Amino acid sequence: MDLTISSSRLTAVVSPAGGELQSLRDKEGRxxxxxxxxxxxxxxxxxxxxxxxxxxxxxxxxxGQTYSLDxxxxxxxxxxxxxxxxxxxxxxxxxxSPETRTRFPFAFLYQVSFAVRxxxxxxxxxxxxxxxxxxxxxxxxxxxxxxxLEEGERFEDYTLTFSAPCAPRRVLFSADGYRTGETxxxxxxxxxxxxxxxxxxxxxxIVLSGTSGIVRLGSQSRGLTVDYREFPLxxxxxxxxxxxxxxxxxxxxxxxxxxxxxxxxxxxxxxVALPAGQRWQIGxxxxxx
Length: 289
Hints:
There is one protein chain. By secondary structure, this protein is mainly β. The protein has 1 helix and 24 strands. The chain has one domain (3-288): Beta-galactosidase, Chain A, domain 5 (Distorted Sandwich), CATH 2.70.98. The chain has one helix at 98-101, and strands at 3-6, 10-15, 20-26, 47-48, 59-62, 65-68, 81-84, 89-95, 108-117, 120-129, 135-137, 140-141, 144-146, 159-162, 169-173, 179-185, 193-195, 206-209, 214-218, 223-227, 233-237, 246-252, 272-274, 279-288.
């Protein structure tokens, strides 16, 4: 059953299917979250664990063994245990099973929690290593937001504006979504913004490092701000070669595999290496305006 949390200024709905956010509305009832139209993209805000993006050939290695894993891992397709933590908070939990251990050979606890306060939704990820060895994994978020938010506006009326001038580097990808191993400068308009156009996304996701960690998606009249300062990377995406009316803002802790390389997770340096018995947390927030 979906769980609903609310404050005086916003309401969020979350599904146990993947612990995925389903709706994010302001006090006037305006929907900010993309609603999953399959003409462009049928999801809304999937959670990415234990990997972000693609493994080459759908495989990776660990301690000499080869495992198969779909794009973005298995949490987005799993049924999580939901818990209402009051009117303004809820949490969804997944633990290992014989089925998960065929793809990710660790004993673990994964939890995504949601809390609202005034006009801000905070999303927190908790991972516990319940295994007897170091656990290697990736994690990310993939929320999509409606663009435009107001009748009469155009997609091109919106910008992605960072909270401070910055000089990001773009992680380069192949046409089929693998890392090339290269990066490039990504100049910003006025040093802090990316004006939106649909062709902007024709060369796959724009994944950046070295940003300010806070970005506003909006027009002059309406918008939202994502604070992802705990994450080293952010991705911006909508389906290439389309006029899809949404943009995803994706905080990433790790990267996909390199093109042509079946990655050894013990050597992929951007993955989290969590010691046995330890607990790890990371989070981001969305503020409506």
